[in-house]
Amino acid sequence: MDNKKIADLLFPDLKLTEEEIFKKYPRRNLNENQIVTRFAPSPTGFMHIGNFFQAFISYNLAKNSNGVLFLRIEDTDEKREIKEAKQVIYDVLGEFGIKFDEYQTLDGQDIGNYGPYVQSQRKDIYKVFAKRLVEEGKAFPCFCKKTEGKSDVLKLRETKFLDNDDKEYDPCRDLSYEEVKQHLDNGESFAIRLKTKHQGTERIKFNDLIKGELEANANAKDFVILKSDGTPPYAFAHAIDDTLMGTTIVVRGEEYISSAPSHLELFDALDFKPITYCHNPLIYKLNESGNRRKISKRYDPESNMLYYLEEGYPNDTILEYLLNMINSGFEIWRRNNPDLPWQEFKFTPNDITTVAPIFDLVKLNDISKNIIARMSGEKLYENWLIFAEKYDEELATLLKSDREKFVNLCKMDRDGSPKPRKDIYNYKMMKEEFNYIFDRPSSYEIASEDLDKANELLKEYVKDFSMPSSNEEWFNGVKVLAEKLGYAVDNKLYKQNPENYKGNVAKACEFIRVAITGKKNSPTLYTIMTILGEEEVKNRLQISLKND
Ligand code: GLU
Fold first, then answer.
1. Per-residue pLDDT for 302 more than 90?
2. Structure confidence by residue, pLDDT tens digits, 391-428
3. Interatomic CA distance for residues 475 and 125, integer angstroms
4. In the predicted model, is pLDDT for residue 548 greater than 70?
5. Does domain 448-543 have CATH number 3.90.79.10?
6. Which of 37, 38, 39, 42 to mutate to test the pocket of ligand 1 (most atoms within 8 A of CB)?
7. Which CATH number fits domain 286-373: 3.40.1170.60, 1.10.1040.10, 3.40.50.11540, 1.10.1160.10?
8. Is the pTM of this model over 0.85?
9. Model pLDDT for residues 336-368, shown as the tens digit of each residue
10. Cross-strand partners of 140
11. Does the pLDDT value for residue 154 go beyond 80?
């Protein structure tokens, strides 16, 4: 009886009822195979690859089961919330094409019937359930100072299992109505704590969709379910929201396994059906000495999802790499189905790896090289331009100023080539990779003993240079000139008596290549020359002469 009176005293103004709440959140009309899941980030201003990993698993599970994916912003920890942090979440998810069936738009409009999808807008709901637990004697108000900051008394209580009702450890656990009233009349604030029914000696079992059956000590702490400012910590909000919103599977990082017993106790106390967990492994990295450690915000720029956008990785690179991490079978599937979109690769919670994946940038880059190699030149140009428009305005202006030229550059050694080039893994590197197109060479990769020979050949070559009309014509032109100057056109003969020649035709071509691009190796030189145009090629040849 006292409990009911205490509850009314603690929440005098609460109008909302449980009945009204359940009416607002009816059961979803789906069959049992349709997974309802969610991504529930806290707005921290940083999207960690581990969080995104979770979002991506949830996205696939919902999509592959024709289920529902919703986004819930967990912003009850106001100290942590920073401005524009929500924007980062929406931007990153949007960029990578993770679409939600239900969410709240940035300007506050709920899309879907189970909102609000932002926890700070659900405070009354949490209060209704906290009040009910107090009424039922399953929770109690705690007036200890610094309830959330943990006073000494609370620390003691948390480290000692509750095997009695010793008030020394528990000054608030069994307060009478009069005592509660007295505290309130003194103007003291209170938190609500769960009155755990466990002793700390019981073991509980629960099933995890990835890890199978798990066993752990039952919770034995009277943990806070409502802070003194009326906001719920993660555990309480999770139990209520995932129940009301009809979540069928909670995908979350395995760092939550240790607190699962306390979460399950809450479902039980609230008379809710226990939720099904799918604790995904965390992503690790090897350090220099070969030991693994969690990929971290502090040391690894690749832990930040914005990194991949700023470096200009194709979205599919990251998504395919994550699929590799989720299930090693993806690699074989990709080999057998090089042209299918990754969306065709389906997996269930059962297929998710139990082994912690190790992040490897080299492998990610290899995946990226293959993905970019499969793009047409036209597509590559489009993607490069989209990247430049966001991160390098000057480059974007240039790319747009001569579309045809840059499309041709992207097509080089690609469209129609039986062995398309596989050296580009992101859009950012393309500027450096193609620097000979943007800038005249600032240095020449040429051995000092070749300088005179190169100069002689180039002087002749530039004399009546005109743009050849095909690769063959270009090569034949070089051959004729090289032979005239004492180079071997027959490589066999050259190899037999190299001292009889200034070099072979390949050497002559190399001199021209270096004069135009600065480099000994480049994609097909003829193509580069057509992209640069006759005028520019001539200029570069001239300049290289003066340089020696
Ligand atoms: N807000 C929690 C986090 O960001 C969500 C965990 C969960 O998905 O339940 O870690």
1. yes
2. 999 999 999 999 998 999 999 888 778 888 899 999 99
3. 78
4. no
5. no
6. 42
7. 1.10.1160.10
8. yes
9. 999 999 999 999 999 999 999 999 999 999 999
10. 193
11. no
- Given the structure tokens 């331009």, which residue do they identify? 385
Ligand 1 centroid to residue 148 C-alpha, Å: 19
Give me ligand 1 centre to Cα 38, in Å.
Answer: 10
Q: How many angstroms separate the alpha carbon of residue 547 from the centre of ligand 1?
A: 62
The 10 Å CB-count burial string (b at 16+, else e) for 199-217 is eeeeebebebbbbeeeeee
Centre of ligand 1 to C-alpha 252, Å, is 7
Strand 191-194 with 203-208, pairing: unpaired
Give ligand 1 pocket residues (Cβ under 6 A): 40-42, 74, 238, 250, 252
Counting DSSP H helices and E strands in the chain, the numbers are 24, 14
Nearest CA to ligand 1 atom 4: 41
pLDDT tens, position by position, 59-109 = 999 999 999 999 999 998 766 666 688 899 999 999 999 999 999 999 999
Residue 197 — left, alpha, or beta (φ > 0 → left; ψ -120 to 50 → alpha)? alpha
| CATH classification number, 4-11+124-280, choose in 3.40.50.1110, 3.30.470.20, 3.40.50.150, 3.40.50.620 | 3.40.50.620
